[in-house]
From TrEMBL:
Organism, as annotated: Immersiella caudata
Protein name: Monooxygenase
Residue numbers spanned by region Disordered: 276-299
One GO MF term: monooxygenase activity
Source organism phylogeny: Eukaryota, Fungi, Dikarya, Ascomycota, Pezizomycotina
Keywords from the UniProt entry: Copper, Metal-binding, Monooxygenase, Oxidoreductase, Signal
SUPFAM superfamilies in the record: Di-copper centre-containing domain (SSF48056)
Length: 335
């Protein structure tokens, strides 16, 4: 099994755009349905992409660098908090909140729809043929040729992000062209490691009845496999943007984590008692990563978001029908 170990006090809620102010969502009576990219209309896809491109051009909130954009802020925040948001129970609620913050940024750019997801379970047999790679109504395809420096994979040559130049590699300034390096498979392995997120493989993950057991299988299995499949080609040393801790460099990150969030939602829906199921231990302090495990997690734990958005509390991001979120997904549909 593949594993990824991606290596403030809150601003006032009013710092978020008033149109998406979390405090204004008092109830959730009509949750919005998040769609699979492949089942969205062409118009819906193009509207999403237009807003996603807008985020790559909007001014930075963090102001860490003169060339930074709002999109760069997402990559920097994810990398900055890397150790605190992976390989422990908080992985799922933190990324649920992070995708919602991105959805709000899309709204700032005029988008009227919801966050979407890449249904890589449905695409697992032929993941390189997925609609997400379409050069017009998708995110463009694999990196090609040369033209990127250092350890970066070849740049993406088509689609709406072919001219996008992410600023960061992890938290280091290292501007480069958006890059991908698909793993084409070998032997019985499917392209993009699709054999690790087939319906059968994901069903085995969903069968775990404990929260942290499920989280561990999902994070280290299908989730990690998609990251590596898109960004780490077999026999090639250079890596694409979807693998380092600055993996939100690739706008596809948010569709990938939309699917991770959907699988958590499906797992929660299987038993009412799972809505607030949350267990496990914090990671040891980053200053002593090999030390003893941290204390048990609780629903009152903080979800840090740096200066990108107000910090959250785990309990507010457990139920997607809460006032903070108010959305749902299609149920399991692969039998």
């Amino acid at each position: 099994m593949l594993f990824i170990h991606f290596t403030f006090l809150a601003a006032a809620v009013s710092a978020l755009p008033s149109s998406t102010n979390l405090a204004a969502r008092q109830t959730c009576t009509s949750p919005r349905l998040r769609k699979s990219w492949s089942k969205a209309t062409v118009e819906e896809r193009l509207a999403y992409l237009e807003a996603a491109v807008c985020i790559t051009k909007k001014p930075s909130r963090l102001n860490k660098h003169k060339d930074a954009t709002l999109h760069d802020d997402f990559a920097y925040t994810h990398a900055l908090l890397n150790y605190d948001i992976h390989s422990f129970a908080g992985f799922l609620p933190w990324h649920r909140y992070f995708v919602m913050v991105y959805e709000q940024a899309l709204e700032e750019c005029g988008y009227k729809g919801t966050a979407m997801y890449w249904d890589w379970v449905a695409d697992s047999d032929n993941a390189t043929l997925s609609a997400v790679w379409d050069p017009v109504t998708g995110f463009g395809g694999n990196g090609q040729g040369t033209g990127n420096h250092g350890n970066h994979a070849p740049p993406v040559q088509d689609g709406p992000f072919k001219d996008f130049r992410p600023l960061y590699s992890e938290t280091n300034v290292d501007q480069h062209r958006l890059c991908r390096n698909w793993n084409r498979g070998f032997g019985d392995n499917k392209e993009l490691f699709g054999h690790r997120y087939t319906p059968q493989a994901v069903s085995e993950v969903l069968a775990d009845t404990t929260y942290d057991g499920f989280r561990d299988l999902l994070e280290g299995g299908p989730h990690a496999s998609v990251h590596f499949g898109v960004a780490v080609g077999s026999g090639v040393g250079k890596i694409g943007d979807l693998v380092p801790s600055s993996s939100p460099n690739d706008p596809l990150f948010f569709l990938h984590h939309g699917m991770v969030d959907r699988l958590w939602w499906i797992w929660q829906q299987a038993d009412e008692s799972r809505t607030n199921a949350y267990d496990g231990f914090h990671r040891p302090p980053q200053s002593n990563p090999g030390g003893p495990q941290g204390p048990p997690v609780t629903l009152d734990d903080i979800l840090p978001m740096g200066d990108l958005a107000p910090e959250g509390i785990v309990r507010d991001y457990m139920d997607t029908r809460s006032a903070h979120l108010c959305y749902e997904y299609p149920k399991w549909e692969y039998d």
